[in-house]
Design a protein that fits this description.
This protein is α/β, with parallel strands linked by helices and 213 residues long. It is built from six helices and eleven strands. The strands form two sheets. Strands 2-3-1-4-11-5 form a six-stranded mixed sheet, sandwiched between helices. Strand 2 and strand 3 form a beta hairpin. The radius of gyration is 19 Å and the shape is elongated. The protein binds 1-O-pyrophosphono-5-O-phosphono-alpha-D-ribofuranose, zinc ion and magnesium ion. This is ATP phosphoribosyltransferase.
Amino acid sequence: MMQNIRIAIQKSGRLSEDSIDLFKECGIKLDMGKGRLKSVSSNFNAEFLFLRDDDIPGYVEDGVADLGIVGENVLVESAKKVNLVKKLGFSKCRLSIAIPREESFEGPQSLQNKSIATSYPKLLSKYLKENGIKANIHEISGSVEIAPSIGLADAVCDIVSSGSTLLSNGLKEVQEIFKSEAVLIGNKNLSAENKSILEKILFRINAVQKAQD
Ligand code: PRP
Ligand code: ZN
Ligand code: MG
């Protein structure tokens, strides 16, 4: 009997629905029962692990999962050693700097000596360094957008998709620093068997994407 390839996808959030849809369109059945963290496909050699997106690159690096779908932002920030197998073209978003609506921004120098709240310290540091800016990075894991209004930071650096989170927190986007979309990642040492299952999955994904063009 062939083993199952283990695929990690986001449990809930911006990527989860599109990730599930992708496999369904590929004809790979997965049922995501309420609260279930694992599901074995009934018609394909795959099992799905439903995890927090931030944890997925680490699980794929360690081989707990063979494949995973995450935002490129999460992948790059994690600095985990995995293969970027394919960009998937959905869940597009950007990592941007945002400041209170009433303030002005004259380019990166406006951030000099300011404090910036973010869940993406590595990507933000890189941007600041490239622009010769010294700023104080406050790393927080969620609800980043409320930081300026509670006096925790002067600015934020967070993911923007529709922009509605920024808007409802009185912030405006002033500088995009990274463009992101969902990517398929893979462990660097897949078994021969898993490599052949991955080939089948890629063949189907390509067919789905062709049909959508
Ligand atoms: C991002 C960000 C905001 C939201 C912005 O979170 O932290 O919460 O998306 O989207 P909007 O511009 O459409 O309002 P993400 O979905 O990456 O989830 P996570 O940070 O909770 O993992
Ligand atoms: Zn997350
Ligand atoms: Mg968020």
